[in-house]
Amino acid sequence: MAGTARWIAAARARESGRPDALFSDPFAHLFDGKVGAEMLALSESATGGENQFLAVRTRYFDDVLLESLHERSQVVLLGAGFDMRAFRLPLPAGTRVWELDRAELLAEKESVLARCGAVPRCDRIAVPANFAAEWADALPAAGHDPARPTVWLAEGLLYYLPASAVTGLLRQARGHSSLGSLFLADVFGTGLLAQPEMKPYLRWLEHAMLPTPFCTDDPGGLLAACGWRAEGGTQAGAADANFGRFPKVPMPAPSQDSVNQRAYLVRAVAAE
Q1: Tens digits of residue pLDDT in 101-131
Q2: Which CATH number is 53-270's, of 2.160.20.60, 3.20.20.140, 3.40.50.300, 3.40.50.150?
Q3: What pTM was estimated for this model as a whole?
């Protein structure tokens, strides 16, 4: 949804203005608007404070993406929204980035980029996509080569899809991936749905006849069922996904309660 994309843009704009910013997105303020600022304020009013996860998630995937591009030159951003990695990251020469999202959102993004004269740091291709249907077949026509390793990034996307669309997305991405390809995503445990601040949102979804947010307590099993092998993932707040934004305390001992409240930052490779 465009509103969600604006909310994330507002969060990135605010993060970029911090003296201890985890990343710099000088374009985010072009996309947030009044709607984005209001959604950010409402979300943090509901949760009782600033959402540190959003900044940590973006920084973590920035780092993994740049590291991964030493061996791969193709990047597909799934549900790209107002993502500006093609413009703000020091991508290696020869990198190609495909941005997939709804046609109307991409059109709005292109209009803003044209007005501000933004120039990408790579070969960037926007591809309209409907993730509830077959979408990956449009990639070869847009120049993507499935025989070459690809980095797929689904940041903030899977949560908004029904379970069938999530498995379909993972399988379609695998079907267009050579060995050596990497899939990155964030996935929440089912405990998120039981948190009190989620109740109004869940009631609204039910009233609007929209699917319950996608969550899983077994991201590794989900990936394996779709042709991917989890490798080197983590969770928000762990030592490698903290960046000084979460308390420096040991991660809880495994239990059902601690597992199903986790925010997983998934890394998976194309399985043979």
Answers
A1: 999 999 999 999 999 999 999 999 999 999 9
A2: 3.40.50.150
A3: 0.93
